[in-house]
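Notebook, bench 3.
Goal today: get a predicted structure for Transmembrane protein from Actinidia rufa so we can plan the truncation constructs. The sequence was checked against the plasmid map this morning, with no discrepancies at the termini. Length recorded as 399 residues. Pasting the sequence as submitted so the record is complete.
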Amino acid sequence: MSEWVVRVEEDVKLLRDASSLSTDLVELWQKRCIYKVPTSMKDLNQKAYKPQLVSFGPYHHGEEHLRPMEEHKHRALVHFLKRSNKPLMSYYESLLEVVQDFKDSYDSLDPEWQSDNDRFLQLMILDGCFMLEVLRYTTDSFDDYSRNDPIFSYHGKEAEEHVNRLIRRFWNDQPERIGKCLHVLDIFRKGLLYVEKYRHTCTTRRNYTNILVMGSVMELNEAGIRFKLSRTTSLKDISFRDGVLSLPLIVVDDSTESTLLNLIAFERLHIGAGTEVTNYVFFMGCILKSARDVSLLESQHIIILNAIGSDKAIVEFFMSLSKEITLDPEDELNWVHEQIIMYRSKPFNRLRTHIVHAYHVSTQWSPWAYWSIIAAILLFTLSMLQTLYTIYPYYHPNK
């Protein structure tokens, strides 16, 4: 125990002396961009964080169910080298100069990879060239591959549809000006969020979100709010204006959950990444509470279902994703949230909500529904009288 006390005291002394404080650890943290997902984050869906068909990088390399893909990686490397007309050694020597930067990009890299540059670079080259070949073959021809190649052929495109869907999700329609990216996941994330000219709204805000709930799609619809497809597919392209909530298109399929969970994990673990995807998922979790909510957004072509099941499954999907996450108070979506709450709180919109709700909850048009509407109108009238009574002395101070 005494040795531990001495060591800690020495660290405290070093920390107090700014001139002696090493920046090595800070620089190492800044280089990290590929993370092992903590166990606490995996509880929601452990399968979502594990590759199902092919591994990229050291974390899952060698796992039994991923080994069949290794032979395809080797074939892709050979074809890549043939087309490039450069020897493998030239790539190896170039990457050897920055091998430590590659290693520093990984969080908690196992010692077996840290200590063996040759093995690590072999993995980087093999996986990297395979990824490039897969990306190339989604848009290019397969003239240099056999017609019956199980992966790199038209037959392979159909046979490995789950691979192609993932590649299309990560690569197709990515804007050209998304800037410097850390890795493929970061490319995909920035592509999801990219807006050519993003509109910044007023920053004068009233903090409603801590005490009031925005409401589900149907509740917002009862208050007179209409839903419209946004002009772009960016997850940031959400706006509320003149009673219209604009939302971007989302296609939900069997890979959406894994994709969003990994993006949320990246935003949580990588300092400075932002929280835009997390905020979007939280927002959708707030407004999707029933199958009717999903159905209404489907009718506006905002949600498209692709082999995921029922509308109820979509509700459960977003509710599970939005567990244990919150909306960043500094994000633009928080302002949209507050605008909607302010819109719903207006007396006329509250009256409309009450009347529409009273009509829908009643299985028959009973006397109770009449009394409910009469009560709502009376409440609205009293609210208006109270407002007039409050502002009248301001405009007529001498009366």
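Strands lie at 226-229, 239-241, 244-247, 250-252, 303-305. The chain has a mean pLDDT of 80.
Flagging this for group meeting.
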